[in-house]
Amino acid sequence: MYDFTFYNPTRVVFGRGVFPKLADELAKGGVSRVLLLYGGGSIHKTGVYEQVVGALNSHDIVFFECAGVKANPVVSKAREAVEAIKANKLDAIVAIGGGSVIDSAKGIAAGSLYDGDMWDFYARKAKVEKALPIYAVVTVSATASEMNYTSVMTNEELGHKVGLSNELLYPRCTLIDPSVQFSVSERQTMDGGIDAICHVLETYFDGAKGLEIQKEYAEGLVRSIIRLMPILRAHPDDYDARAQFAWAAVNALNGTTWAGHPTRGEFSSHAMGHTLSAKYDSIHGETLSAIMPAWMKYACREDMPTFARFAERVFGTNESSEEERALAGIECLKGFFASLGAPVALGDMGIPKADLPELAAHVTRNGPIGSLKKLEMVDVLKIFESAY
């Protein structure tokens, strides 16, 4: 293993009926005035809004609201929230939702204590030096934003979807009640499982050697998610399955999978997927279900033993050669994604084939991407064409 420092300060409160404990967590942090940040109206239908507001009122915590965060969060909405925080002198953000809302909260937390435009952080024109505390109330499990320091935001004017990472952006506390996710749609649940699997694999396939414990950990997470998805599809109110998936999704991208690795991982598939989301507002999990198998097939010869091992340990393939096993495993993963009702081809998503060169150029606009295999524009275009 490579030397590493593991740090994750997020306190997680997990279980049935835990959302009212938010008030105690805010009180411990000395918080008295908060912004409630959320997406659409689902939190009203599920009773989550009432639980959160009831908790705030019980401790006389003043709150202002900012609703309407999109599935692919945009900087224009985040700027509105920043202005509300500054105008009302708020001292924390309560993000109610999934990864999109929590990602937004991170950018807003940094932008609220910055004199310039918050997009400066995403454009690498400024570094986050301070941020408001974030408290996350999770209603959808997928991205692990509730326990990591990364935010992804779209600038709709520029057509750029960009990530930002900074240790000041870890949520102070995250509350997860798996029972409120019974009402999450089948499509959202399946897309969340795909996202979590890809998070694990993008570290697993970074080419690092001598990481047996990390490989077994990653394989276990992927096997568990694959086992849980059909259960949740058939029984969306299975609490045990929901709870296990919620915790698997958190651990897929909270730093534990890349401890001992030389890098945080090989996130080429995410980079390509973000370009599709920025241009077409595509569903994040569906961009990955189409791109990840195509990237694996293109890059597997850089580390055939690990791709063969993945196929053996996760899908039980037993072909005679490493290459045959590796390729069979990739087809198994693609087939699993298809079994969840996800698109496994860009053409199925309605993306025009004529746009692929432009998309490849956008992905590599700042230079090559990838760690296992460096991808120039021509490589990205080949992967897009293979995924079509």
- Following the backbone from N to C, one meets helices and strands in this order, namely EHEHHEHEHHEEEEHHHHHHHHH
Q: How many whole angstroms does the radius of gyration measure? A: 20 Å
Q: Tell me the strand percentage band.
A: 5-15%
Which structural class fits the helix and strand makeup?
A: alpha/beta
Q: What is the residue-averaged pLDDT? A: 96
Q: How can the largest sheet be summarized?
A: 6 strands, parallel
Query: First CA to last CA: what distance?
Result: 37 Å
The helix count comes to 15
Can you characterise this structure?
- Helices cover 48% and strands 11% of the residues.
- With 388 residues, the protein is of the alpha/beta class.
- A six-stranded parallel beta sheet has the order 1-8-5-4-2-3, sandwiched between helices. Strands 6-7 form a two-stranded antiparallel sheet.
- Helix 7 runs parallel beside helix 9, helix 7 (186-204) runs parallel beside helix 11 (284-299) and helix 10 (268-280) runs antiparallel to helix 11.
- It is globular and about 65 Å long.
